[in-house]
Amino acid sequence: MDLGKNAIIRLEPEDEYMHPIEAASNFNESMYINLFDHQQQCGGWFRVGNRPNEGHAEMSFCFYLPNGQVAFMFQRARIDNNDALDAGGLKFEVIEPFKTLKVTYSGKAVLLANPQDMDDPKTAFKNNPTVDASCDITFHGMTPVYGGEAVDENGTPIEENPEESFARAHYEQHMTGSGTVAIGEQQFELSGFGLRDHSWGPRYWQNLYWYRWLPMVFSNELAINISIVQMATGRQHIWGMVYDTRNGGPAEYDLIETAEMSSTLDAQDQAIKQTANITTVSGRQYQVSGESLSLIPLRNRRQTDSGEWRSTRITEAMTRFECDGLVGYGMSEYLDQMVDGKPVGIAC
After folding, report:
1. For residue 53, which phi and psi values (nearest 5 degrees)?
2. Side-chain half-sphere of 119: how many Cα atoms within 13 Å?
3. Tell me: the pLDDT tens digits for 76-98?
4. Overall average pLDDT of the 34-60 stretch
5. Mean pLDDT within 12-24
6. Tens of pLDDT, residues 224-252
7. In order of start, what are the domains of the chain with their CATH numbers?
8. Pairwise CA distance, residues 289 & 271, whole Å
9. CA neighbours within 13 Å on the CB side: how many for 159?
10. Is 231 exposed, middle or buried (0-12, 13-18, 19+ CB in 10 A)?
């Protein structure tokens, strides 16, 4: 975003809580968090996105089991306010701003022996067993927080065109987490690492042409988040951060300045491997390679005012990463608009 003269990114402890509903019909406020247990090689991600002006919240629960199965649930739960991120059985609770969060879920999940079944959601939910699912996880901030809301010199939020905005106000933080997840009769005691974000403002999933998002953690001393976003105009935005306290490095984020990335695709043009070379503002260079351990394809469709249907595919893969001889875990999330059955970002 071109913030203009005297514009700043503002972030206050109050931003951990809910924000006033804005006029845009597609106003969204959401929290997302993931957690991966490195020893058990399992974990998941959880999201609630309120769309009060549309009368519903998007709730997603996704857990990758060690045997390759994925437990998944999505709901458009009815809401008529923006008082809490608590919908469809999934709840986010701020215990202490920027330091401690709690996530709980109680509901159902479809248990997918072949996660690729979700390419056709209706058939996937029909042909796979539905089981009881729950989670109770407490997260603690491992790093400082990066991001916030763009405001002008008067402290007024800088508005964007609702047809182009995706996460006008947005911040992220690497986390540690521990707790339990139950999938049917199976219970997992988890202790691991992850990343969370909180965003608010207008959002359509079709506003971006494509993006690649790679949040990962290797240890208490090394965590990385890589993001490459491209608009339909061809404008590309590369950002992200590295937390590296090895060898006495400062306990702060070193922002990513440049990133080059390539992906290996499967028969469905889904990324199953990737490599990324990044350079930070301080001049440090890192090479990261990733390999998907379990991938689930999700989709979002929207009909425009002109009656045109637009389809977005988001592949969500639990991924094993390597960097500097270290092994870490996280997500490789690829969003693409689909045109004639092909992802538009197939070259990256």
Report:
1. -75, -15
2. 9
3. 999 999 999 999 999 999 999 99
4. 98
5. 96
6. 999 999 988 888 999 999 999 999 989 99
7. 1-203 (2.40.370.10), 205-348 (2.40.370.10)
8. 12
9. 7
10. middle
Q: Are 45 and 333 in contact (CB under 8 A)?
A: no
Whats the size of the chain, residue-wise? Answer: 348
Measured CA to CA in angstroms, residue 296 lies from 77, 274, 334 at distances of 22, 16, 11
Instruction: Retrieve residue 200's tokens.
Output: 């608010």
d(CA 126, CA 238): 40
- Tell me, what's the pLDDT at 59? 98
283 SS3 class: coil
Contacts of 14 (CB under 8 A, 6+ apart): 97
Q: What is the mean pLDDT of the chain?
A: 94
Burial class of residue 67, CB neighbours in 10 A (0-12, 13-18, 19+): exposed
Collect all residues with Cβ–Cβ distance below 8 Å to 141 and sequence separation of at least 6. 98, 99, 100, 173, 174, 175
d(CA 187, CA 344): 39
The model's pLDDT over 96-144, given as tens digits with 9 standing for 90+, comes to 999 999 999 999 999 999 999 999 999 999 999 999 999 999 999 999 9
Rg of the chain (C-alpha set) = 19
Q: For residue 189, what is the enclosing H or E element?
A: strand 186-202
